[in-house]
Write a structure and sequence with these properties.
2 helices; about 5% helix; 31 strands; mainly beta; globular
Length: about 450
C-alpha cells in the first residue's frame, strides 16, 4: 500500500532487530500474550504523530521508555504487524486539539499490530492530558482494533476517526476473522481525560476495543473522566478484568455489535457533577443500533461488578452537564436492542432506574445470579425506551430495595467518599455477605495505589 511520508522518522531495523521481530511474530501465535524482550527502536522525537513504523515491508518494534515524557500530536497509528512496547511508569500526554473538527492526541493500534503496555501497581502506565489544567475530553483516547468477529457484515471503520485516515482504521469482518486474535497487553494502565466527539453519536471513548480477540490481555485498567464512554466494546471476544470507570460522562461499560467476552471485577462510579445528553448509564448493551438479530449476538458475561450512581433521588433526576444542561442520569444497567447477557455476583445502586430490560427493537434476554439492586424507583424493571415501566423480580436475583438515599440497603463501606478505594467494598451488613461486587472474595489483592478516584 502506498504510504504518506512518516511524521516520525524511525531507524531501520538491524539484523538483530529483525531476529527480534521474528520472535514477536512467534509470540503472536500463542494464546497468552507475554512481554517482548526486544528493546526495539526508541523514537528520537518525544512528540509522536502520524503512523509509527517504516511500512508493511518491515516489522518494527517501537519502544517508549519511562525516562521520556511522550506526547501524542493528533491521532497516532501503530501500523499493521508493528509492535509498540511501553515501559512501566511511562507517561504519555495527549496534546490538545487545534480545532473542534480535529481530534486531539490519541493512540490507535490497528489490526495486526500489538501494544505491550505492562505497568505495575507501583509504576502504572498513564495516558493523560498535556494541558496544564486538564479537563475531560482534552485528547482523544486509546483505540485497539482487532480481527475478531463482529455482527457487522464486513469490516467497518471504527467510530470517531475522521475519513481517509493515514492507516487502516477498520476492525473485524465476516471473512478471515480470528476470535483468538492477540492485540497485546494492557495491564496497570490508567487513561485520563480522554474522549472526542467527531459528530453526534460518533465518538472516541476512553478505551475503545473493536473486534479485539481473546488472545489479548486487558487487566487492571482505569479510565478517569472520559468525555464519552469509559470503556466500549464493538464486537470481539476479549476478556477484561479489574476495570475502573471513574467519572465518565456517558456510559461506564458499553457493549455492542456482537461482543462476547467476560468482564470481571469491575467498578463503575458516576460523576456526581455532570451527566450526558444521551443519559449516563452503568452498563449499556445493544446487539446493534437497530436491534436486529444479526449474529453473533452481543452476549457478554458480567462477573463481580459494582455500579455506583449518585447518593440521592433529587440528584438522579436533575439535568446538568453539557450541552446546555441537557445531561441526565439514566440506568444502572440498560440492556436493550436484542442483546443477550449474563450478570453474576453484582451490585447496582444510586440510579432512579436500576437494571432495565428494554423491549424496544427486540427483547434483551439474559440471566442473573446473586445480584443485588437498589434504586430510587424500580430496582429491576422492564420498559419500552423510557415508557411503560414495570417492576420485575428476575429469577436468580437475591435482593432489591427502593430508597431515596442510596446505599441504605446495599451497605457498601462508603461509596460516596472518594478518599479510599476500600470505601467501595462490601461490609458485614451488606445483604450479599461479601460474595458480590467488584471486591468480593478479596480478589483485588492490590492495595489500589495505582488507582485515581478524584
Amino acid at each position: 500500500m502506498k504510504r504518506r511520508p512518516l511524521a516520525l522518522a524511525l531507524l531501520s531495523v538491524t539484523v538483530l532487530g529483525a531476529a527480534m521481530m521474528s520472535s514477536c511474530k512467534k509470540d503472536a501465535t500463542t494464546s497468552a500474550p507475554r512481554s517482548v524482550s526486544a528493546p526495539g527502536v526508541i523514537p528520537s522525537n518525544p512528540t509522536l504523530s502520524g503512523v509509527l513504523g517504516t511500512g508493511h515491508t518491515v516489522k518494527d518494534t517501537i519502544h517508549l521508555v519511562a525516562s521520556t515524557a511522550w506526547h501524542l500530536s493528533g491521532l497516532v497509528y501503530v501500523d499493521s504487524s508493528d509492535v509498540l512496547i511501553i515501559d512501566a511508569g511511562t507517561k504519555i500526554y495527549g496534546n490538545l486539539s487545534s480545532s473542534s473538527s480535529v481530534p486531539g492526541g490519541g493512540l490507535v493500534i490497528t489490526r495486526g499490530a500489538k501494544i505491550l503496555a505492562e505497568g505495575t501497581e507501583s509504576s502504572p502506565i498513564v495516558f493523560t492530558s498535556a494541558a496544564t489544567t486538564p479537563a475531560s475530553g482534552d485528547w482523544s483516547g486509546v483505540v485497539i482494533l482487532g480481527n475478531a468477529s463482529t455482527n457487522h457484515t464486513g469490516r467497518v471503520q471504527v467510530e470517531g476517526i475522521p475519513t481517509n485516515p493515514p492507516a487502516d482504521a477498520t476492525f473485524g469482518g465476516s471473512t478471515g476473522t480470528n476470535d483468538a486474535d492477540n492485540s497485546g497487553i494492557l495491564k496497570y494502565v490508567r487513561i485520563e481525560y480522554g474522549g472526542y466527539e467527531l459528530s453526534t453519536d460518533n465518538e472516541i471513548n476512553g478505551l475503545t476495543l473493536a473486534g479485539v480477540g481473546s488472545g489479548t490481555t486487558i487487566d487492571y485498567v482505569e479510565v478517569f473522566k472520559s468525555k464519552d464512554d469509559s470503556f466500549e466494546w464493538f464486537g470481539g471476544t476479549v476478556n477484561a478484568s479489574h476495570l475502573l470507570s471513574i467519572d465518565g460522562l456517558d456510559d461506564m461499560f458499553d457493549t455492542d455489535n456482537g461482543y462476547r467476552g467476560t468482564i470481571s471485577y469491575a467498578l463503575g462510579v458516576s460523576d456526581t457533577t455532570r451527566a450526558d445528553k444521551s443519559q449516563s448509564n452503568g452498563f449499556e448493551s445493544d446487539n446493534n443500533a437497530t436491534g436486529t438479530s444479526a449474529t453473533p449476538l452481543t452476549n457478554p458475561v458480567y462477573n463481580y461488578v459494582t455500579i455506583v450512581g449518585v447518593s440521592n433521588v433529587w440528584t438522579s433526576l436533575k439535568t446538568n452537564g453539557a450541552p446546555s444542561g441537557t445531561g441526565k442520569y439514566g440506568r444502572a444497567a440498560h440492556l436493550r436492542r436484542n442483546a443477550r447477557y449474563t450478570i453474576n455476583n453484582s451490585i447496582f445502586l444510586g440510579f432512579y432506574y436500576g437494571v432495565s430490560r428494554d423491549t424496544q427493537f427486540g427483547n434483551a434476554q439474559g440471566t442473573f445470579t446473586n445480584t443485588y439492586a437498589e434504586a430510587f424507583s424500580y430496582p429491576f424493571l422492564t420498559e419500552v425506551n423510557g415508557t411503560s415501566q414495570a417492576a420485575v423480580t428476575p429469577a436468580g436475583t437475591q435482593g432489591s430495595s427502593v430508597t431515596n438515599f442510596a446505599n441504605g440497603y446495599i451497605n457498601l463501606a462508603d461509596p460516596f467518599d472518594r478518599s479510599s478505594i476500600s470505601n467501595f467494598e462490601t461490609t458485614f451488613a451488606s445483604p450479599d455477605g461479601g460474595t458480590a461486587g467488584a471486591f468480593a472474595n478479596g480478589n483485588w489483592a492490590s492495595s489500589g495505589t495505582w488507582v485515581r478516584l478524584r
